[in-house]
Amino acid sequence: MRIDLHTHSLASDGTVAPADLMTAASAAGLDVIGLTDHDTTAGWAAAAAALPTGLTLVRGAEFSTYVTVPRSIVSVHLLAYLFDPLDPVIVREQERLRAERLQRGLQMVELMMADGLPITQEQVLAIAAGAPVGRPHIGRALVESGVVASVDEAFDGYLAGRGSYYVPKLDIELLPAVRMIVAAGGAPVVAHPRGRGEGRALTPELIAELAAAGLVGLEVDHLDHDDADRAELRGIAAELGLVVTGSSDFHGTNKKVQLGANLTDPAALEVLVARTSGVTPLVTA
Ligand code: AMP
Ligand code: FE
Ligand code: FE
Ligand code: ZN
């Protein structure tokens, strides 16, 4: 069984339409794919309608959250699986997060334009095409206008979190986000806990607190994690009875990683699904 539980489509900051992503997943030899667009469930219906025979779709989303640590606020991504997409608290929070993304994206473009970079807000909005605005959309505008050669290159400079054009957005706090997802029947899993943005903010103590609030798992096998990160996170997960997941975090051509680059154990998915009551996993006949 090849299970990839974290991917992005054109419904957020990927470059492949949800329906085409399902076809690509099948062609990549996956048996199960998790669709986890940022702050939206807009891709679920098209993906479900286009499922090739034998492929199971796990509907999910990735929430942008934050934790406060001494002297700074750290961004933490939280995956949510099989929650009720009509849960009013989730619906309202995703709307708020998307509004934050729009405002913040436009502000970043404004700063770049003021510095003479040849991109426009209209251009970025056209690229996002209604999806929650993310830095990759600005990156594609920078590529389109010949400022950089790739989205990767844009992230190394113009879009960098410590760069002069970076504008923060007001995300949801991590612990309440875990509770919100559990209340909507979903399974929360911390995405890339030792990723570039997260660093060491997620201490074993904090993860234990999240587990007590209903956190189901940790995404351990992810391209941002080295062997030491993975070993450490596996240890924490074992101690707290958390599920370990693995995934590609596929973003189409916005990132180099390919579908199935990291995988989740079938037993882990079984435990994860058993902890949910929002929507059932779905497979074509
Ligand atoms: P934002 O959510 O707007 O702060 O933008 C960060 C998002 O860009 C993260 O979810 C990353 O997964 C995504 N991303 C896409 N392509 C890249 C890239 N080449 N380098 C870094 N992050 C990327
Ligand atoms: Fe992304
Ligand atoms: Fe992420
Ligand atoms: Zn992601």
From the structure above, extract its key features.
285 residues, alpha/beta, 10 helices, binds adenosine monophosphate, binds fe (iii) ion
Tell me what you see in this structure.
This protein is an alpha/beta fold. The chain contains ten helices and nine strands. It has helices at residues 18-27, 44-49, 88-114, 121-128, 135-144, 151-156, 174-183, 204-212, 227-240, 266-274, and strands at residues 3-7, 32-38, 56-69, 72-81, 172-173, 187-190, 217-221, 243-246, 282-283. Strands 1, 2, 3, 4, 5, 6, 7, 8 and 9 form a nine-stranded mixed beta sheet that branches. Helix 8 (204-212) links the parallel strand 6 (187-190) and strand 7. The model has no long low-confidence stretch (mean pLDDT 96). Bound molecules: adenosine monophosphate (AMP), fe (iii) ion (FE) (2 copies) and zinc ion. One fe (iii) ion binds next to loops.
Tell me the helix content: 25-40%
Give a count of the beta strands, DSSP E runs of length 2 or more. 9
Biggest sheet, open or closed, and with what strands and sense?
Answer: 9 strands, mixed
Spans where pLDDT lies below 50 across 5 or more residues? none
What is the number of helical segments per DSSP (H or I, 4+ residues)? Answer: 10
Overall radius of gyration: 18 Å
* Average pLDDT rating: 96
Q: Rough shape? A: globular
Order of helices and strands: EHEHEEHHHHEHEHEHEHE
Structural class: alpha/beta
Strand content: 15-25%
Name the bound molecules.
adenosine monophosphate, fe (iii) ion, zinc ion
Task: Report the end-to-end length measured between terminal Cα atoms.
Answer: 18 Å
